[in-house]
Design goal:
The chain contains no helices and eleven strands. 27% of the residues are buried. The strands form two sheets. Strands 2, 4, 5, 6, 9, 10 and 11 form a seven-stranded mixed beta sheet that branches. With 121 residues, the protein is mostly beta strands. Helices cover 0% and strands 57% of the residues. It is elongated, with a radius of gyration of 14 Å. A hairpin with a 6-residue loop joins strand 9 and strand 10.
């Protein structure tokens, strides 16, 4: 199977920065799109942004200009650089990846376990 492991979360003051990482491992033939989502208790999980295998990105309006998604295809890793953090960014952040698991092209999405980001003074 495939595992996604996020890291880099923590407590940061408003205006600060954090960089999250998402490492994919296991039965991976290739990885198509990857994405970051976030969720606060009592609310639906929401999209933060996505990145294609070619590096094209798109972001939600709430983070555009502050967050940047990148990836290292050779290391099956995606990153979320978060700058100018606000208390409203507090959430559990999840990584998502569409993984091709064999040469026949079987493809499905996987999720990480999430990492907590808390923005507070």
């Amino acid at each position: 199977q495939v595992q996604l492991v996020e890291s880099g979360g923590g407590l940061v003051q408003p205006g600060g920065s954090l960089r999250l990482s998402c490492l994919a491992s296991g039965r991976i033939f290739s990885i198509d799109g990857m994405g970051w989502y976030r969720q606060v208790p009592g609310k639906q999980r929401e999209l933060v942004g996505t990145i294609t295998s070619g590096g094209d990105t798109r972001y939600s309006e709430s983070v555009k200009g502050r967050f940047t998604i990148s990836r290292d295809n050779a290391k099956n890793t995606a990153f979320l650089q978060m700058n100018s953090l606000e208390p409203e960014d507090t959430a559990v952040y999840y990584c998502n990846a569409w993984v091709v698991t064999n040469v026949e092209g079987a493809r499905r999405d996987f999720w990480g376990q999430g990492t907590q980001v808390t923005v507070s003074s």
